[in-house]
Structures are given as C-alpha cells and as structure tokens.
Amino acid sequence: MQVPHALVGQVFTWQQVVFGLFFVFCLTPWASPPIALALGLVLAQTVGNPFPTHTKQLTHKLLQFSVIGLGFGMNAHAAVQAGKQGIAFTVVSIFGTLGLGFLVGKWLGLGRRVVHLISCGTAICGGSAIAAIGPVLGAKDEEISVGLGTVFVLNALALFAFPPIGHALHLSQNQFGLWCAIAIHDTSSVVGAAATYGNQALEVATTVKLARALWIIPVAIGTALAFKQPGAKIKIPYFIFGFVGAMLLNTFVPAAKPLGPPLVGLAKIGLTVTLFFIGAGLSAKVVLGAGIKPYILGILLWLVISTGSLLVILHTA
C-alpha cells in the first residue's frame, strides 16, 4: 500500500514521486533511449508504475508523433536508396520468419494463434504488428498479452546489446542501420538503438523499418484468409505516411528546413520518453506471465533472424 505524502501543497505517493523524477530526467539531454528504458524497468520492478493505463495509451501515440518528427531530419533521396537496399532483406526475412515460426511453434506445442502473433511481431514490427494482427486473427486478450510480453522483453535486450555488438564488429553506419531494421522487433527500439549508433544509422534504420511496417497490410490479409476470418478489420499504420510527408517537406521545401532541427530534437525526446513508458510497463508479472515456451520461440526466431541478417549484411552491404 502506498502512503501519500504532501509536496508543494499536493498529495503524492512515493510511486508518483519516483515516476515524476524519472520522467523529468528523460526530458533532459543526459537521458538516452537505453537509459530511459532502464529507468522504466527499475521503476516497474521496484515501486511499480502508478499510471499504467495512461502510459499504455500514451506510448502508441507518442511513438507515432516521434517517428513523424524524425522525418523532418531526413533526406528523401537517401531514404529511397536505403529503402531499395533493404527491400530484398525485408521480403526474405518476413516470409522466412513466418515459416520458421510455424515449424518451431508446432514443435513446442504452442497454440496456433500465439505462434502466429509472435512470428508476426518478430517478422514485421513487434508490438504494432501484434496489435494489428491480433483482431484479424480473432486472438484472445491473453494470447495478445503473451505475444506482446515476449517481443517487448526481447526488444529491451536488443536495445542494450546491439550497439556494443555493432562497435565490436566495426559495422558501418549503413550496415548497423540495416541490421537494426531487420533484426529488432519494435520501431521504438530500432530507432533507439540506431540513434545511439549515429545519425546515418538512424536514417537508414527508420526508413527500412517503416517500409517493413507496411507489410502489416498484406500479412493481415493473408492472416484473415488462412485463419478463416472473413470481414476482419485491418489496421493500417497511417502515421508512416506522416513520416514520408515530413521527409518530403524537409527535402523539397526550403521554408521547412529551419523547422527540422527543433522538430527532430523534440522527436528524440519523445522517443526517449516512449521507451521509459515501455520499460515501466514491463513488470515481473508481464515478463513471467507468458511462460517459458513463448520465450523459447521468440528467442529462437530472434537468434536466427539477427545472426542470419548480420552475416548477409557483412558480406553484401
């Protein structure tokens, strides 16, 4: 039970005070995406998140606005080049992951819907893909929770692990950006890891990842047919078009150029706060509630796609 305390004339619990201090720190220049995620995880495992409903609602919107803001710092010509380079990786990795997920899930004896959710989350864009595919699949709330819990834990690991691995292997900015976009599940962690590595890596990773996210649409249609869900509603990630619009303005409209640096700065702060919110939602209950088998599936798929794509990138990009 949280005991309320008076502070500047208002009554707050210790949960709210700690949350507020961490939140304010995430707005400062000293915070980075990995630090923000770590603070969220510390909060979740200690005093707990006092605003779970609010942070869950804000995370999705804040990520969308942050991604659109990043578009004001990107060049359309460079983005087209990055998109061309990443399309072959995208197609092969998506269908390869879905096929491998089906086989491994069958071997583990997991439910067909849980397997498909985790496979889609790994193949396309993590939590966004699971949230979009779940209703089309007719998945139950607990099945969606298992899928989300699995990919969010692996996202957290990737955000910390990928930049040191990239430096150890002397990956170029382009190579690291491609690797992040293919091998990290969620857009938030892709952008967070790439931003830590460098601006060019960020540009490549964001462009390729958002192009990859558009595969939600054909995969959702295929899911509706495979699982016999006629008339199922498909959620289209419209914010991607906002990102493209911002990028086109920054490239072709000289008057928009001065807006770029402040908007990109705000977008990076928004991304940092987003990762703090995500970490704050990963309580022990969420982490352990999925059981061991979904994690085995998620880890195997993640290891295959991350090592396989890294080997290809090292030899071709």
TrEMBL record:
Transmembrane segments: 17-42, 62-80, 86-105, 117-138, 144-164, 176-198, 210-227, 236-253, 265-288, 295-314
Membrane topology, as annotated: Multi-pass membrane protein
InterPro entries, per the entry: UPF0324_pro
GO cellular component terms attached to this protein's record: plasma membrane
Keyword set includes Transmembrane: yes
Record's subcellular location: Cell membrane
Annotated family: Belongs to the UPF0324 family.
Annotated PANTHER family: INNER MEMBRANE PROTEIN YEIH-RELATED, UPF0324 MEMBRANE PROTEIN FN0533
Protein name per Swiss-Prot or TrEMBL: Putative sulfate exporter family transporter
Taxonomic lineage from the root: Bacteria, Pseudomonadati, Bacteroidota, Cytophagia, Cytophagales
